[in-house]
Known about the structure:
By secondary structure, the chain is an alpha/beta fold. Helices cover 27% and strands 36% of the residues. The radius of gyration is 18 Å and the shape is globular.
Amino acid sequence: MANAPANPPPASAPAKGAAAPVAAPGAPTGFGKIKAQLQSMLLGSKEILGVDIGSYSIKVAYIKNEGGGPQLKAWGLLPLDLNPEASPEQKKQQAVNLLRAFLIQKQIQVKEAATSVSGNAVIVRYVKFPRLNKDELWATLATEAEPFIPFDIKDVQLGFHILGELTEEGQKKMETVLVAAKKDAIQARVEVLEAAGLKPTIIDVDSFAL
């Protein structure tokens, strides 16, 4: 994804604790930087915890760089056993408790975590925009993207990746992957991870996640 300008338009500004798609506060924005950050984590002397929060379970993978490359040091499949009538707060608390217990059991000290959002909270579209540079597209992204997004544009975090350029009917255009993720879905992930004592540094889209 393209890098966000210093002052992106309000409609596409990151939600509290997230960027798009989607990274947490202070984390890089855009798939290009997300990929670079993940490569840096795995190729440098770092470690990270991957957390996939699903409807029925939480999948966790602890990855650490050692022996010349990333190694899977621990993993877990944590079933979510909830009453169908459970409130959102009860669901959140169980997820937090399961993550905390897993970290204690496996004696994992790492704080940096990567997660993703999926389902109805995420829209991915392949669209053609007028040819613009990245800064120009960021400045007009909310307006350009609105016809393709079935949500209120103010309620989503936007991101894009330019695939290439083409000419149609004499006009230069850009083939672009456009992604919109609901800010409340992003924030829900951030709240679970932070309550479990983790620092969400990468929040991606399931279909693009490693």
